[in-house]
Amino acid sequence: MHKKIVLTGITPSGTPHIGNYIGAIKPALEMAKNPDFDAYFFIADYHSLIKLWDGQLRQQYIYEIAATWLAAGLDPKKVMFYRQSDIPEIMELNWILTSVTAKGLLNRAHAYKAAVDANIAEGEKDEDAGVTMGLFNYPMLMAADIIMLSADLVPVGKDQIQHIEIARDIANRLNHIYGCNLLKAPEALVDKSTQTILGLDGRKMSKSYNNTIPLFAPSKLLKKLVMKIVTNSQLPEEPKEVKDCMVFALYKHFADETEVSILAERYQTGIGWGEAKQILFEKMDVVLTPMRERYEYLLENKQIIDEYLAEGAAKVRIEAQQLLVKLKQQIGL
Ligand code: TRP
Fold first, then answer.
1. Ligand 1 pocket test target in 40, 47, 140 with most atoms within 8 Å of CB
2. Strand stretches in 258-322, DSSP E
3. pLDDT at residue 205 is higher than 90
4. Ligand 1 in contact with 167 (CB < 6 A)?
């Protein structure tokens, strides 16, 4: 049987936080263990150019994201693990795809529309104020990432479903225009379990809200941040709902089933928030400490990361070139 290709990327625009790990990295690594899939996981460094204009910081984040994937258990012998900018073929494909894509398709993309709406709300004369062509074209580049490796499935959060649909449209359109079947139209894979991870203040955990828990915060800082999670004002002896409780939600991602049911029972009989948070912190720290140690080791030995990425890029480029050769032939280049 032909294995399905599952592909996903992470933009290196910040230090990885717990939300990235639970929402993207952990489920992706679980899929990579499934023998029905060939996994392609990459660092979307070209995407980071849109949001981040500091080269040194970008370098740092690229290594941090790479070290995170590896520390979380990515096996570069089994997974195609690479950096987007090491695959120049993606840029060539990007232009070929751009040339058949209706501008209106991208006018409707959420990120762009949100920027325009914000400008209108602020009474800006120019609706496009502050919008770079990079931001506008960002779903195009994402389509190129996906189509370049003929991905079947792209695990994404709800906010990214539209981008996968755009990639489908673009692949189908090029196939139609040039009368071929060379490009694979991908499908989004939205996992119910990857519900949005909430941040310290109860909003979605996101760098832009400044409410994140860094994935590899040292134990002391981790404890401090866990203690800061907002809870309600119920007294310790009052029975508590596990539903919509962030402390409990986080615990579920780190503890096993027995541990989770024990904590659920404590909620029913009454547990103080301080104690619940202490239990959460201890569990997180036990799970994260070995990963943190590996992460720190890799960041002190970046040549290991460089080697893995170079090996990954060499393998991926061969596949990218094969598709590009066929595509160029088809379109008369
Ligand atoms: N846009 C994604 C994000 O910000 C990252 C990304 C870039 C991606 N290219 C991709 C994800 C291709 C999946 C497939 O999270």
1. 47
2. none
3. no
4. no
